[in-house]
Amino acid sequence: MENNLEFPENFLWGGATAANQLEGGFDCDGRGLSIADALPSGKKRFEIVQTPDFEWKIDENKYQYPNHLGIDYYHHYKEDIGLFAEMGFKTYRFSISWSRIYPRGDEQEPNQAGLDFYEKIIDECLKYKIEPVITLSHYEMPLILAKEYGGWKNRQLIEFFARYTKTVIESFGNKVHYFLTFNEINSASQHPIMGQGLIPSNGGNDKKNVFQAWHNQFVASSKAVKIAHDFNPNIKVGCMLLYATSYAYNSDPKNQIANLQNNQDFNYFCGDVQIRGQYPAYTKRLFAKYGFTKADLDITKEDLQELKAYPVDFISISYYMSTAIETTGITNEQVAGNLMGGVKNPFLEVSDWDWQIDPTGLRIALDELYDRYQKPIFVVENGLGAKDKVEANGKIYDDYRINYLKAHIEAIGEAIVDGAKVMGYTPWGCIDLVSASTGEMSKRYGMIYVDLDDNGQGTLSRKKKKSFEWYKQVISTNGRVLTSDNLKY
Prior knowledge:
Layout: E1 12-16, H1 19-22, H2 45-49, H3 73-87, E2 91-95, H4 98-101, H5 112-127, E3 131-137, H6 143-147, H7 156-172, E4 178-182, H8 192-196, H9 207-231, E5 236-242, E6 246-248, H10 253-276, H11 283-289, H12 301-309, E7 314-318, E8 323-325, E9 334-335, E10 342-343, E11 349-350, E12 356-357, H13 359-373, E13 377-381, H14 399-418, E14 422-425, E15 448-450, E16 462-464, H15 466-476
Parallel strand pairs: 1-2, 1-14, 2-3, 3-4, 4-5, 5-7, 6-8, 7-13, 13-14
Antiparallel strand pairs: 9-10, 11-12, 15-16
EC number: 3.2.1.-
Pfam families: Glyco_hydro_1
Family: Belongs to the glycosyl hydrolase 1 family.
């Protein structure tokens, strides 16, 4: 049955992955170590990295490191991209491992074997008329830049990132039209290790360092826009935000103002600078909240001019869940979320991993973002982490995933009706991969099953889930058919 939603004819349907979660080949062809390679697996991985004695040392006698293998996409990419093409992908969002191009991050010359690998991936996509969307930095900065340079709080990383970006753009800018700078840049408010390489031992607990690191990334983002536009004016560069629609728990004005400030501080701050090209009016209040002023940061006049001159061309977001803000003490019930938790919303159900499921929150997010910035929005992550079961007949009936994705696609369609300009939709983990938040394989997002368990055991064989056939139908009808009725699987 067709619905009444109308997606643009050039709407970019596809899927999204990240190098550090699926590639593997962590020591192949000259690649250097990244911060992701030093993250142990398990639900307590963030507790481990927050301890004062964590120093990026890889201890295989004590921990497992699933990112080292990923799903061995490094040797399976042709098979995987072929499956994406079978689903009908118009686009594929993937990331480049910075340390595969510059193993240390501070070299003058790139690793050609790394460039060759991504050239093959891009060409494989183009063979199937799949538009590549490349994330330049997705939670995998070279480990040396965190260990020896102290992460993104060091201004030297601006130069290193610019050199890396220039290499990528000059290598692939005639084939790739869309680039994203820093994945979920605002997530550093909760976990600066992922995007900024900051841990307690190098200043990660000091919010001034987090904001200095953000400033350096803002400048680096502007430089990336300039590099891309100078090379090819048709290239579009976007920022990437972790967006979690936020509600006041009730109508108490204390919760209302707390929710307003949560939106400013988390959902909007990084976007305001990268999209509008300047620090927002509430910056003074935000800095004061953590006990410092703008004068305490290394921000130059030239930096501010560069931010203004080279804002991003579009906005991309991840959206998995919403959160509620309660400050008056009437409830302490908490839920988990995408690198952040919050107060439980009594009107929402939760996933197997206790994330609140809220498709209407995505519609609200798109409406609010477009109203605020008036720039195209790309939903580049959205999905359901769940425990999939392979039945005796070899099938995986993941109707729960279909229902989740269907509801969120409907929300996108409604936002388009509302007037939001939405470019495309790339659900997260179109193929099973290692979870960023827990390092598990059992937390599965994909429409393609990979035979691998949390201990790294399995055949690595790929298998289509029911959602594979459903999403194929969604793409082929440009979102007009979202039901799974009469689906052959």
